[in-house]
Amino acid sequence: MGFHIRNAWLPYPRAFLRELVLDVERYPDFIEGCHAIELLSRHETMVWARVTTSYGFSFVSKVVWSLFDISIDSPTFKGHWTFKDEGKGTHVTFAITLVHPSFAQKRFFQWMFPLASKKIFYSFTQRAHILYTEENQR
Fold first, then answer.
1. Helical H runs in 55-136?
2. How far is CA 13 from the centre of its chain?
3. Pick from 54, 24, 31, 11: which is nearest to 127 by CA?
4. How far is the C-alpha of 49 from the C-alpha of 36, rounded, in Å?
5. Residue 37: half-sphere exposure toward Cβ, Cα within 13 Å
6. Cα(58)–Cα(49) distance, rounded to whole angstroms?
7. What pLDDT was estimated at residue 101?
8. Is the pTM of this model over 0.85?
9. 54 near 35, Cβ under 8 Å?
10. Distance between CA 8 and CA 124 in Å, rounded?
11. Which end of the chain is more exposed for a tag (fewer CB within 10 A), N or C?
């Protein structure tokens, strides 16, 4: 119940996909339920951001990255993206784990968590397609 993983091969370069995930300021533009992002601090390989949801709650999230992966740490969940060059594209994996859920959170996330992880992953893959297509039409 508290862990979900999504993966896909996408016909885009690893660096492009990695930068797309790291563009946290744009999340409200394409992730359903993400109302606002406030950058609290940015370092060479880390960002702290306050995420405000459309569901009436907010949380602080830490995003840490390297060349091949991105980790997201928040009080509610831990997320992990990996990017592996594969042929003329990239194999992308997104794993998300619910952290220390209360009884109420377990009940709520039991039905919502699988759908949310699917929507998040789909949002990123659709965004990649739109941006990559626009970029290559210039």
1. 103-136
2. 17
3. 31
4. 10
5. 20
6. 10
7. 66
8. yes
9. yes
10. 11
11. C
Beta strands in the chain (DSSP E): 3-10, 34-43, 46-53, 58-65, 69-73, 77-86, 89-98
Place of tokens 């290559």: 136
| Contact predicate 106/1, CB 8 Å | yes
d(CA 82, CA 55): 28
C-alpha to C-alpha distance for 54 and 70, rounded to whole angstroms: 24
Domains belonging to the chain, first-starting first, are: 3-136 (3.30.530.20)
Q: At what angle do helices 103-136 and 14-22 cross, to 10 degrees?
A: 130
Question: Which pair of structure tokens corresponds to residue 97?
Answer: 């784990």
Tokens of 124: 């990123």
Contact (CB, 8 A) for 49 and 40: yes
Which residues are within 8 A (CB) of 41 and not within 5 positions of it... i.e. 6 or more apart? 47, 48
Burial class (CB in 10 A: 0-12, 13-18, 19+), 26: middle
Q: Which residues of the chain have pLDDT under 70?
A: 1, 100-101, 105, 108-110, 138
How far is the C-alpha of 96 from the C-alpha of 46, rounded, in Å? 19
